[in-house]
Amino acid sequence: MKSKLKKYFISYYLIPFMGFLIFSCSASQLTYHELGIKNYNEEKYRSAIQYFTRAIWEDPVNPQLYLLRANAYTKIGEYTDAIDDYSMAIGLNPEAEYYQNRGLTYLSMDDYEKAINDFNSAIQLDPSNAVIYFNRGYTKTLTGELTAAINDYSKAIEIDSTNAKYYVNRGDLYSELAEHENSINDFSAAINLNPDDELAYFNRGKEYFLFGDFKNAINDLTSAINLNPENIDAYFFRSESKVNLGNYLGAAADYTKIIKLDPKNGYAYYNRGICYANLDLKKNACEDFNRAGELGFFRAYEIIREYCNKNKKKKKR
Q1: Residue 292 and residue 267 in contact, taking contact as beta carbons nearer than 8 Å
Q2: 128 near 122, Cβ under 8 Å?
Q3: What CATH class does 246-317 carry?
């Protein structure tokens, strides 16, 4: 079974709206501004755009209004319009937040080069902002620049060592580079910062699994499952850990849970069948192999021929 470690995705770094409630402008413009914010907070993004547009008509050189309208555009997926507004804000007053948000919008458009360029500009303007390094690191991960991404996550941690997400993402990259000890150390740091961090437990559990430390893997994967009982990947790795420890009954129980969550998962039926076969429950095993084959997991038909249709001793994995 192959599964990549999970990463935190980037959320938009939006300037707090309350920071814009007071600035020098006419009463009518402030009303449009406030109405835009009210509608945005109520998730009425198109209405918010209309109000911000009216505010811009009355004050076309206020970069904050373009920023607010751009944020609303991103919420409805109109990224080209958002880029135009962020660019207008940058032209009027180049600030790190504007580059940051435009970079994130380019990221949403899968234009990683432009996203990184904007994050570079943001860092030049605000070199002590950990979030920008985090976002640039994530983008570099997508372009395959893993070492550079680790450097960015490390810089984010240097600036703000209290954010568990930074450790989780860096630990993920260490894992991909087979630096398992560094990876486990980062996931452990994330858990120390946030004991309810499901991703940190899941990723450390998988790392222990890859190490062959199945007992610790089960402990961490159980913690991840307790935090998110619908984490199918965690059940898979926990079941595989149990199989490696000879606990076929426990593994079968995990596969049963996976099947309840995903009834068309042929791989889960197949593996539960293997567990049943190792428990000498041939009827149950063959029922699962047949179901796995019906669901498109065609490897099951081979074991049906060798195990179910012939009077042979059970085969173990």
Answers
A1: yes
A2: no
A3: mainly alpha
d(CA 104, CA 129): 15
In the chain, ranges of CATH 1.25.40.10 domains: 162-241
In 3D, which of 46, 42, 97, 37 has the Cα closest to residue 68?
37
pLDDT digits (tens), the chain, 317 positions: 444 445 554 433 332 332 333 333 444 445 788 899 889 999 999 999 999 999 999 899 999 999 999 999 999 999 999 999 999 999 999 999 999 999 999 999 999 999 999 999 999 999 999 999 999 999 999 999 999 999 999 999 999 999 999 999 999 999 999 999 999 999 999 999 999 999 999 999 999 999 899 999 999 999 999 999 999 999 999 999 999 999 999 999 999 999 999 999 999 999 999 999 999 999 999 999 999 999 999 999 999 999 998 765 444 45
What architecture is the 162-241 domain classified under in CATH? Answer: Alpha Horseshoe (1.25)
